[in-house]
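Q: Is it fine to ask for two folds in a single conversation?
A: Yes, each is treated on its own. Send the first.
Q: Here.
A: Result:
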Amino acid sequence: MRRLLDRLGDGFRVILPLLLIPLVTGCAPGVCSGTRPIVKIGLAAPFEGVARPLGYEALQGVKLAVAQWNAHGGPGGYMVELAALNDSHDAHEARLQAEEFLADPAVLGVIAGWHTATAEAMVPILSQGGLATVLPWSLPALLTDPDRGIAMLAAHEGQVAQALVEQLPTTIPRCHIAVVGDELAVAPYRESLPACARSVAPPAALHRQALQTWAAALLDQRAPPLEALILVVDPISAGEIAATLQQAGWSGRLFGAADVGSTQLTDVAGQWADGMVVASPAPSGADGPLHVNGDGTALAALSPRGALAYDAAQVLLTAIADNIAQMGYPSRAGVVAALAKVQAEGLTGPIAFDLDGRRLHAAVWFYRIEDHRYPGVLVGQVER
C-alpha cells in the first residue's frame, strides 16, 4: 500500500483514507469489523486530474447505495466497505489499480470503466483474476463476457449512436451532417448515417488559432452546407468546439455523444453550450423513479453518472447477496456466477442482462443544455 500511495502522490494520499474508512459506507469505525463479517466492493474512477468531477459523481452514487445496504444489514448479513481507487482516466494507471483490487482478497467485485481506454485496460486483468466487474458507462459491446463476470449496465456505444441518429430532426438532410471524432469513435455513427455524411477528425490542438483554422475548414462553403454536428469527443474538446463554431457565426444544431455530457462541457463552453442535445446512458436522479429504498432527496441529487454508479453498486451487491444465499458464504467465483443472473430495480429502470452480459432493454435519455447547466432539460428517452 505504501508503494501505491507513493505512486499516487500527495494529493491522493490525503483523500484515499477518506474513501476507504467504513464511515463513508454507513458503519462507524470498528463497529462493522467487530460485530459482523465484512465484504468489499471496488470503485475505479478518476479522483485527480481534469476528469476528477466524473470520479466524484460516481463516488456519490456508490456511497449512497452502500450506505443503504449497510443500513438494512448488508448482503447476507455482511457489512460492506468501499475500496475506491484513482484510475486518473488513464489506461496505465487503470491497470495498476486492477492489480490492487486483485491483491485484496476481501474485494468481491469492481465497478470500473467510465472511459473506453480505462475499461479496455482493466477488464482483461480483472477477468483473468476472477473478479466480477460491472461496466457502468456506454462502452464497446465486445467488452462484456458473462462467463467471466463482465456485465455492462448502460446501453453500449452502438446503441447510443443509433438512438442519437434516430433523434436527429428529419428536417436536416443527412448529407448535411458531420460527425467529429477519431476513427474508432465515429464508426458506430457511420453505420447509421448515409455515406454522404461527413466524418471529421477533431482539432489537433485546442488553442484559439488552431480551433479557428479547424472551424474554417469545417465550414468551407465549397462543401455541402453543414446543418448539424455530432460531437464524439471528450467534454472539454466538445466545449471548445461548440464555442468556436458559434463565435464564428455558425447557427447549426449541435449534438453530443455520451462522453460529451459533463459539467466540464458547460464549464468550458458556457452560454455556447446552450441548445446542444446530449445523448445520456442514464437519467439524472431527479428524472429517475426516485422510489428505490425511499431516499428521494439523496437520489435526486445524483448526476447521470452518479445514477449509473448507484445502480452498478446495487447490481454488484445483489450478486453478492445471491451468492451468499446460495452458498452460505461469499466468494469471487460465486459472485461471477451470480452476476449474469441478477435482476434488480434501479434508478435507470429494471435491470437484467442478456446472454452476452449486456443490459436488456437498455435506454438512452436525451438532454438539452439550458442556462449553461448540465445535464439540462430532459427532452426524450428511447429504449433499445
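Q: Second one now.
A: Result:
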Amino acid sequence: MVDTGWIRHILVGLDVSQTSAAVLHTAVRLSAFLKADITGLFVEDINLIRLAQLPFSSEVRYLTAGIRPLHQEQMQQVLHSHATWLRYEFGQTARERSVKWDFRVARGFVSQELLAAAHQADLLVIGRLSSHRGVHKRVGSTALTAVQQAATSVLVVSPEADFSCPVTLLYDGSVAAAYALPVALSLAQLSKQLVIHIRAQDDREAARIRQELDTAVNDDAILCSYRLWLPDQNPEQLWTAHLPGIVVVGDGREGLAASFADQLLHTAPCPVLFIRPPAVSSHLHPV
C-alpha cells in the first residue's frame, strides 16, 4: 500500500478573502499531521497594478461609498501591507504547530503563478470561494483552474476542515483512488471514522471492490463504512446521511470528469482533496 510519505511539501495560496483564514489553518494543521514542510504564497495581482496605472482609475470606499483617485503607488503599498500581514499570520500559525515554513511573494496573474509554484510542491491548498463580494457565494476561478490544470494534488478549502467529523472517500478503483485511499486513512486517524463511497454499476461489482478494500484497509482502530456510489448519482446525494469533515477523491485524469469535479466543488459541504499520483514514484506501489 502507498503511504502518505510522498506528501513532503505543501504550497498554500493566500489572499485577503473571507476564506483565507480557513485555508491557512487547514493547511498548517494538515502539514503538522503529515509532517510536511509548508510554503505560503501571496500573489500581487498584476491586473490590479495595471488597473491602478490607468488615469481614470478610482477607488470606491466600502463603508462610506466615497470616491478618490487610485494611483499605482497606493496599490503597491496596499499589496505590500497585505503580504506583510499574511506573512506574520502564516508564520505565527505554523510556529504554533511546530511546522517548518517559509513565505513567498510573487507578482503576476494569480492562477498562473500558483500553477507554476505548484510544480515544486506535492499538494496545493487554496480557497474555494470567489474573492468578489456578493450575496451569493460562488466557486472562484482560481479554484476551478487549479483543479482543472494543476499537475499536483489540490485541496480546495471552504469552510475550514473539521477533522473530528468522518472522512469521506470517493473510490472508483482507479490508480489515483489507490493513492487516495491511504491519504483518507491517515486523515481518518483523527476522527476514527471513514466513509467510503464505492463507484460501481451494481451491488455485485461493489461487493467485489469492497472485498479488495477490506484487505487494504486493515485498521481495526478506524470505523469504516461503505456506501454504493452509482455513476449517475449527483454528488450532493452522497452526504445526505452524514456530514463529512473532508472529502477525498482520486483524480488521475483518466476517470474523473471535469464536470463531476465542478459539481463536487459546488456541492460539497466541506473541503475537497483531489489526489493525483506523483509524477515520479518508482519507490511507491499502489494497492
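Q: Anything structural to flag on that second result?
A: Two points. The radius of gyration is 20 Å. The chain is about 40% helix and 25% strand.
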